[in-house]
Amino acid sequence: MRRLWLRWALLVVFVVALGIVFVNLGQWQLRRLAEREGHNAATIRNEQAPVKPYEQVFTHPIVDDDQWQLVRATGTFDAAHQLVVRNRNNGDDRGVEILTPLQTASGTLLVSRGFIATAPGTAPMSTGPAPPNGEVTVIGHVRRSEHGRSGAITPQDGTVRLINSEAIQQSLGYPVADGYIGATEVTPAQTGGLVPIEVPELSSGPHFWYAMQWFMFAGVGLLGIFVFIRSDLRDRRAARAKQAATVSGSAHGSETA
């Protein structure tokens, strides 16, 4: 019996340790769910807010909760420093974005003028359509800078993989506001087949069900302790009954002899 108690104690310690890990993973998924729902609420709130002058929003480093607010900026495009942003997605389409600095009376900010889909197997674009000349007015969504390894955020040969205002600023040689604008409307109208980037689909994602799965794993582990101990006790009772029957049979045989 002592060996059984030791075996059960080790089992309980193992399952409880594993259960703690599973519960923590479940709670982590619930935290991710809360964060995602918070971002979704901020996106809806920003989308429904009236269009603001960009100077009222780009007063601080742009973060997730600033995204998708519509702003307006007026200035002239710096076509000489335009960049093609490679390997971009827009809904189900894959292609490029065209990023052009917009010089305004209050400073310069980066504007993604839109998306151009590219057919699979075609060579990547190295240059994009020219922006409108003269003064333009841009209305678009606030976007935060994207982050990645140096090779992805540093422009090279007129292209870049991620839009990071700080890294692009270094290549421009003049300061730009943090983050950028994803244009939804440019006046005068631009040419080249550019389309706005779609607002991301707002959903809670799989986090809730992932959390439930981790909690279920913890519950199955605890139930397994009960099943395992019950099986050991049943086997022990069966072994004792068999041993008693053997002893009884031996004693009966001796009396007969």
From TrEMBL:
Matches recorded under InterPro entries: Surf1/Shy1 (IPR002994), Surf1/Surf4 (IPR045214)
Family annotation (CDD domains): SURF1
Ranges annotated as spanning the membrane: 208-229
GO cellular component: plasma membrane
UniProt keyword list: Cell membrane, Membrane, Transmembrane, Transmembrane helix
Family membership: Belongs to the SURF1 family.
Membrane topology: Multi-pass membrane protein
Location(s), subcellular: Cell membrane; Membrane
Protein's UniProt name: SURF1-like protein
